[in-house]
Amino acid sequence: MHANPMRAAAALLALALCGCAPIEPWVKPYERERLADPIMQSQRDALAARHQEHVRVVREGARGATGVQGGGCGCN
Amino acid sequence: MVATDVKRAGRFARVRRWLSSLRGGRGALVAVRAAQLLGGAMAATSAGAVTLPEDRAEAMAHLYDGGGTKASGPAVLVRKSVNDQLALSASYYVDMVSNASIDVVTTASPYHEKREAYDLGLDYVVRDSLMTLTLGNSKEPDYIADTWGADISHDVFGGMTTVSLGFTHGSDRVGKKDIGFFDTAHHWQYRLGVTQILTPRWLASVNTEVVSDDGFLGSPYRVARVFGAAVPERNPRTRTSRAVKFRVIGDVGDRDIVHADYRYFWDTWEIRSHTVETGYSRYFGNAWLADSFVRFNSQHKASFYSDNATSETTYVSRNRQLGTYTDVSVGASLSYTFAQVPGVYDAKVHAGYEFVHYNYKDFTDIRTGSLYSYNASVLQLYLTANF
Predict the structure, then answer these.
(1) Rounded to an integer, what distance in angstroms lies between the CA atom of residue B139 and that of residue B67?
(2) pLDDT band of A70, cuts 50, 70, 90
(3) Taking each helix axis from N to C terminus, what angle separates B3-11 and B13-24, rounded to the nearest 10 degrees?
(4) In the prediction, which pLDDT does A74 show?
(5) What is the block-wise mean pLDDT of chain B (387 residues), using blocks of 10 residues?
(6) Is the pLDDT score of A64 beyond 90?
(7) Distance between CA B350 and CA B289 in Å, rounded?
(8) Where exactly are the structural domains of chain A?
(9) What is the pLDDT of residue B109?
(10) Does B119 contact A70 at a Cβ distance shorter than 8 Å?
């Protein structure tokens, strides 16, 4: 079977247009109720997060990428 | 707190209060208030604007007890908005340390000391961005650390994606009890994070951080062992580390939350580390919230770490923090909302406990000749209020 060049061109054009179109957010603001709950936050309480981070940084060689600002030891 | 979380907390603050109002169930007045707040939140979200996190106060008592070391103290934090765009925060944190760890009892005398840390923060909101500036000072008798940092997080893609960037510079003065301050250290931390809404129930995030250090990066008190003899440890004066952490968190039921994290760490001292964590959180009624987690960390030693070196090298350390070991944590916490006026304020009391087991693969307890391991407890008791 021979491919129809016009159809192929139309398909390519359609794909190209799709690529140019802005992608719509697939979770609308009104669907974010569950995500808004504080329980979804990785660190809800700043002081508790900072203390936990300090306990680990002082005793482990690894550090960083935990999301707690500053981090570090500040001690010897 | 992670900048993305602060920002998301701010953006969703009004939605959250609306939820609290509905749970409180105070009839028509609450329903009207909820509708107003939800409408406002929707308008804000659809307009793409970010709001400041809520005004907040925290007061905590904390304790670490393990391996002969006890560190405890109070900590307080207050954050207050000045207007719709600007909020200021301040915190004070104390560590009262009583140290009789294995390093100390085998090479020195147990000691007590106090570390105090002060931090100031400024949050500023512009359209879809939250900017945060921080200043910090940490002081103990033989170590002073000053830090400043800047973070920015920005919503893109209709609020589906939050990108955050951060930088912190630390400048330390290093001292020793009998000789005073004798050296310095500098630290540069660069952070990049992306949080993505996957579905109405699931979020995913990737955080990376590069930390570069320069200066005196060890302890003037610690000794290494070379051919069985104690010698002062000798660490390189530079270090660069990289870490990347992946996280997913989702609601698998009716506000039943699970999360899973993985972090890979590597640095120029040839330390490698894998950390995994998983946890479960859920509400019990409207007032109680329980969290639980299990964490496992596995580390491979620095190239110059040795339990007892059998050759002379430029650098040598017996700091078990740089050795090969595993640690396993199991933790749980409980929060209780004891006062709440929906849409106005809430106050909670929290208690958290974590048990940690450290198991060293190449650090010998020279008192017994066997490999060293110990257990530790971490306790947090604190109050929080949003207002």
Answers:
(1) 24
(2) low
(3) 50
(4) 63
(5) 48 47 39 37 47 94 96 97 97 94 84 95 94 96 96 93 96 95 97 96 97 96 94 97 98 93 98 98 95 98 97 96 98 97 94 98 94 98 97
(6) yes
(7) 9
(8) 33-61
(9) 80
(10) yes
Please tell me the distance from the alpha carbon of residue B305 to that of residue B309, in angstroms, as a whole number.
8
Q: Can you spell out the DSSP letters for B51-119?
A: -PPPPEEEEEEEEEEETTEEEEEEEEEEEEESSSSEEEEEEEEEEEEEE--HHHHHHS--EEEEEEEEE
Judge: B115–A64 Cβ closer than 8 Å, yes or no.
Answer: no
* Pair B46, B40: CB distance under 8 Å: no
CA distance B117 to B90: 11
pTM more than 0.80: yes
The whole-number pLDDT of residue B5 equals 53
Q: At what angle do helices B13-24 and B27-47 cross, to 10 degrees?
A: 160
Which chain B residue lies closest to A37 (C-alpha atoms)? B16
Give dist(CA B373, CA B38) in Å, integer: 53
Chain A (42-61) residues lying within 8 Å, Cβ to Cβ, of chain B: 42-52, 54-55, 58-61
The identity of residue B7, as a single letter, is K
* Residue of A24, A26, A40, A58 best to disrupt the B interface, most CBs of B under 10 A: A40
Q: pLDDT band for position A9 (50/70/90)?
A: confident
State the pLDDT at residue B105: 85
Residue B81 distance to chain A (closest CA, Å)? 17
Determine the pLDDT at residue B254: 86
Q: Which two tokens stand for residue B257?
A: 């939350």
Whether A25 sits inside 8 A of B157 (CB atoms) is yes
Q: Residues of A with CB below 8 A from B3's CB?
A: 69
Contact (CB<8Å) B207/A45: no
Distance between CA B66 and CA B142 in Å, rounded?
Answer: 23
Q: Do B321 and A59 touch (CB under 8 A)?
A: yes
Q: Which pLDDT does position A17 carry in this prediction?
A: 60
Secondary structure, 3-state, B271-284:
CEEEEEEEEEEEEE
Question: Which pair of structure tokens corresponds to residue B292?
Answer: 């639980």
Nearest-by-CA chain B residue for A22: B157
Q: Given 3.30.420.40, 3.20.10.10, 2.40.160.40, 2.60.40.10, which CATH number is that of B53-386?
A: 2.40.160.40
